[in-house]
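Task 17 of the worksheet. Students: predict the tertiary structure of the chain below and write it out as structure tokens. Keep your answer in the requested format; marks are given for formatting as well as content.
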Amino acid sequence: MSAKKKPASLREHDVQSVLAWLKKHSSKATRDGMARYGVPSDTALGVTMADMKVIAKEVGKNHELAAALWDTGIYEARMLTSFVDDAALVSVAQMNRWVRDFDNWGICDTVCFHLFDRTPYAWQKVEQWHDRKEEFIKRAAFALLWGLTVHDKRSGDDVFLTGLDYIERAAADDRHWVKKAVNMSLRAVGKRNAELNAAAIATAKRLAESSDATPRWIGKDALRELTSASVVRRTTK
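Model answer:
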């Protein structure tokens, strides 16, 4: 039996065919609903994540196509790059270019969690971006750190302990998308193993005792999860 052929519009794997597919699967309701999640819709078509994963699977890995999709500036096209690009071919220069284009948490987190954290330069970028002034570049550092707690199976605890130092230093930043990422990464580090759980709890306790509202919120919120029975069971297996 012959293999099932891909739809003709996808066999070429060119930008226009991908955009045409996305437009066909877009809806005004999806686009209008994006604002409820803090994602600007002025560059969006209105395609669900489920549909974007369908087209990403059809296309497969294609570094050149990913670069061209990014250059369109369209929200869904840029989201696709997270699944279509080849992390082994991503350069430092590309990461630096793309991070400057981050303008919402959806693009930032998806690119960091599905692409950037799989590159050889991920830890380098955590170090370089954690104290940047730009809101979404700084968020990218902590989104990367969060992704690395899940996908980096080789590094020891030392790099994550350094990550906790970055978290503590960034905890006073009260910008919404930064503080949420700092909180997220603190909780993620503390769920990696028992030793890092203890270190993350110590960090969270110091933040929870702060006179500043932002680090206090980050610390108290993280403590609720890091000291929960489910996390204790997970980290002591």
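Marker's comment: The chain is about 65% helix and 0% strand. Residues 17 and 95 are 26 Å apart (CA to CA).
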